[in-house]
Design a protein that fits this description.
Length: 425
C-alpha cells in the first residue's frame, strides 16, 4: 500500500513515522519537504495548496490514500477536490473544516447542539465591536478572537477594556491578521486547566485518543508569549475516567450528532480544545485535524495499526474496530530556535542526533544541507519518550534533549510539571 501525507511539520513526521510501522505500507510520500521526514518518507516538492499537482501525483504513483495534516488545505477544500477526482483521502470536507476555519460558525454549532462554551458576541464591523466594548468593565479579562485561520495567532487574551479595544483595532482596522480578522468574536475569559481531546471519526461514530496537555507559552512556569506549543504529555492525569466520560457525554457525542444532522462530510481527526470551568468542561476551540505537538505525543502510544484505523475511517466502519493504546506515558519536548515566537535566525547545524537513545525525534523545522540537518523554522524538533510512569518518561526525554544542540536552541525545562506535582493548572 502507498500513502501520501500532506504537510511538513513535526505532526506530519509523526504521522509518517506511524505509517512506517505498518506491515501494510510499502511506500510513504510526504508533500512538501522537511529534512527529517526524508528518513521515513519520500519528499514530494508540491505545495499543500496545489490540489491539482497533488492529485496528479497521487494518480501517477498509484497512491492508495492521502492523509492531510494541516488545516489550511482542509479549509480550502482539498478533500472535496480529491473526492471529485475519485481519490481516497482522510480529512473533513471544506464544510466540515469550518469547525476550525470559522470561529463564528463553530460557536453557532456549539450553541445549536448544546455544547458548553464561553458566552460570546460576534462582530462584522468595528463600530459595533467598539460600542460593545465601551460597556465592558475596565479591568475584566476578555478574549478577542479572529474568525478566520491565523496560524495560531488569532486569539488575544486581554486584561480589560483598553486592551480589548486595541485588539479589535489591530484585527479589524490595521488588518494585523489579514482577512482572518475581518470578523471577530469577543468572548468571556475562563480561567482553568486545559486539555486536548482528539478523536478519530468516520463521521458516524468516534474513538477517543488519550487526552494530552500542551504547553503553549515559550518559557517555564507558563511565562512569556504564546507559541504553537512547546511540548505536551499524555495521558494527562487530569483526564480521569470520570472527566473523560463527562467530555464524551457533554461534548463529543453532541459534536458527532451535530456533524450527522448538518450532513457534514467529516472523516478524519477532530481536536477538541477543552478548558475546565470549575467541574464543567467547556470547549475553547475545535481543530479539524491532529494537533501539533499533541500528535507527536499521542501517536507513540498507539498500538493498533494506523492503516487499519485509516481504512475503518474511509469505509465508515470505525465502530467495528477496537483501537488499543499502550498503558504508558508519553512526553514531547519541543526544541525551538532562539527568538521564536518572534524573529529568529535559520541555518544552524543541528548536532548530537546520533546520540539519541530510546526516544523519537520528530523534525518540524529542519532541512538537509550537504548531508547535515540545519534549522529552518521556529519549532525545530520534537523529542519524545515513553515510559510506564510519567517521571521516568520525563527523565528519559530530557536526557535525550540534552544530547542535541544548535546555536540559540531554546526549550522548556518543565514539560509535564503539572502531572509530576499533582497540579492541574
Ligand atoms: N497544539 C495546538 C494545535 O495544534 O492547534
Amino acid at each position: 500500500m502507498k500513502v501520501l501525507v500532506v504537510g511538513s511539520g513535526g505532526r506530519e513526521h509523526a504521522i509518517c513515522w506511524k505509517f512506517a510501522q505498518s506491515p501494510n505500507v510499502e511506500k510513504i510520500y510526504c508533500a512538501p519537504r522537511n529534512g527529517g521526514i526524508s528518513q521515513v518518507a519520500q519528499n514530494v516538492n508540491i505545495s499543500v495548496e496545489d490540489f491539482k499537482g497533488l492529485a496528479g501525483f497521487v494518480k501517477e504513483n498509484n497512491i492508495d490514500f492521502t492523509f492531510v495534516g494541516p488545516e489550511v488545505p482542509l479549509s480550502l477544500g482539498i478533500v472535496d477536490y480529491f473526492k471529485e477526482n475519485g481519490l481516497k483521502i482522510i480529512g473533513p470536507s471544506k464544510d466540515g473544516a469550518r469547525l476550525e476555519s470559522s470561529k463564528i460558525y463553530s460557536k453557532e454549532f456549539m450553541n445549536k447542539y448544546g455544547i458548553h462554551t464561553a458566552q460570546y458576541n460576534s462582530f462584522s464591523n468595528i463600530e459595533s465591536a467598539l460600542k460593545f466594548l465601551a460597556n465592558w468593565q475596565e479591568n475584566k479579562k476578555v478574549v478577542v478572537k479572529a474568525d478566520g485561520l491565523a496560524a495560531g495567532k488569532g486569539v488575544y487574551v486581554c486584561n480589560g477594556r483598553e486592551d480589548a479595544i486595541n485588539a479589535v483595532k489591530q484585527m479589524m482596522n490595521e488588518k494585523a491578521l489579514g482577512n482572518a480578522g475581518a470578523n471577530v468574536i469577543i468572548e468571556d475569559y475562563i480561567d482553568g486547566p486545559e486539555l486536548s481531546y482528539l478523536i478519530f471519526t468516520d463521521g458516524k461514530t468516534y474513538s477517543l485518543m488519550p487526552a494530552s496537555q500542551d504547553h503553549k507559552r515559550i518559557n517555564d512556569n507558563d511565562e512569556g508569549p504564546n507559541t504553537g506549543g512547546m511540548g505536551a504529555y499524555a495521558p494527562a492525569p487530569l483526564a480521569t475516567n470520570e472527566l473523560n466520560k463527562k467530555v464524551e457525554d457533554t461534548i463529543i457525542k453532541k459534536v458527532i450528532d451535530g456533524i450527522k444532522s448538518e450532513e457534514l462530510d467529516y472523516k478524519g481527526v477532530l481536536y477538541v480544545g477543552v478548558i475546565m470551568n470549575g467541574s464543567i468542561p467547556y470547549v475553547l476551540e475545535f481543530n479539524c485535524r491532529f494537533g501539533d505537538p499533541e500528535t507527536q505525543t499521542v501517536l507513540p502510544l498507539l498500538d493498533t495499526d494506523f492503516v487499519d484505523i485509516c481504512e475503518a475511517i474511509l469505509n465508515t466502519n470505525l465502530a467495528d474496530l477496537k483501537i488499543s493504546w499502550k498503558k504508558e506515558f508519553s512526553v514531547c519536548v519541543v526544541l525551538a530556535s532562539g527568538g521564536y515566537p518572534g524573529s529568529f535566525k535559520k541555518g544552524f547545524e543541528i548536532n548530537g542526533l546520533e546520540n539519541i537513545r530510546d526516544a523519537m525525534v520528530f523534525h518540524a523545522g529542519t532541512k538537509l544541507e550537504n548531508g547535515k540537518f540545519v534549522t529552518s523554522g521556529g519549532r525545530v524538533l520534537g523529542v519524545v519518550s515513553t515510559s510506564p510512569d510519567i517521571k521516568s518518561a520525563i527523565d528519559k526525554v530530557y536526557s535525550n534533549v540534552s544530547m542535541i544542540n544548535f546555536d540559540g536552541v531554546h526549550y522548556r525545562k518543565d514539560i509535564g510539571w503539572r502531572a509530576l506535582n499533582g497540579k492541574q493548572n
